Amino acid sequence: MTQRKTKISREVVLYSGYNKLSIQVSLGGLSFCIVNCTNNSIVSYQEFPVLDENPSPLAVELTLKKAIASTEISKYRFKEVKLLFKNEKTTIVPKDLFDEKELLSYLRFNSRVIESDFLAFDEIPNTDLVNVYVAWKNLIDYAKKQFDTLQYRHYNSILIEHYIRSNSTKHETILKMVLDTNNFVLLAVNNKNLEYINSFSYRTKEDLVYFVLFCLEQLELNPAKTIIEVFGKTDMNDDRYKMLYSYIKNIRISNLVLPIPYDTVYTKEDPIYDTTPIDALL
Fold this sequence. Notes:
- By secondary structure, this protein is an alpha/beta fold.
- The chain has helices at 10-14, 57-69, 103-108, 137-146, 155-166, 205-218, 239-247, 276-279, and strands spanning 19-26, 29-36, 41-49, 80-85, 90-94, 118-123, 129-135, 151-154, 173-179, 183-190, 193-201, 227-232, 251-253.
- The protein has a five-stranded mixed beta sheet with strand order 3-2-1-4-8. It has a five-stranded mixed beta sheet with strand order 11-10-9-12-13, with helices on both faces. The protein has a three-stranded antiparallel beta sheet with strand order 5-7-6.
């Protein structure tokens, strides 16, 4: 298993019980992020890919077990542990139309779900929105056995909360894309309102461009005028970026700004591309 190397801060050892842990899981892999509450800093971040040729929730669970066994995570007592699900089986429901008994019906509008799927929902702070999604019960059960405390949320819920809170534009729709190796999330935000969000898997840069242009068409936005801010694993030399730019001229790669600093002994040899695991703990 490939593991990112990181130093564990002295504070983690001295103030065990004053740390927060987020575990982000997807079919592509998982990450651990530890934030120290005493000095409000990132003290550890590690990523582990799912190496199974046919990834599944069971393969993710196996990767999680190996990751915990190969790190010092199990030695610490955490004040808070959050399990973040990053998958495409999710949908947004207005709060005034939400009925907890209808979770399966909501998801069936845009996802393949079955009655045995474990369904969950997040009420998103400072909005009138509820995120309904499929959570992987096997991972919840395993994590509950490993940690004294556990909360779980969907990745998109954290994104929506963060971008609505931080967005300052008025009367203009801005698209925000969080780009990963084989998936991305696209949000449309206007002022403090969410107009659109969806998650996509892709294999080629052509797939990526197709999905983005399709979303623009659905939102009736002009590719020549619409601003897209891209976060994640990309730069101006990336073929994906170059192809997107050939269709969308107002595309910007946003510099990552960490919401809290690194601990002074944190190794920066493997940069963090996505602040969502950190945002979930703040």
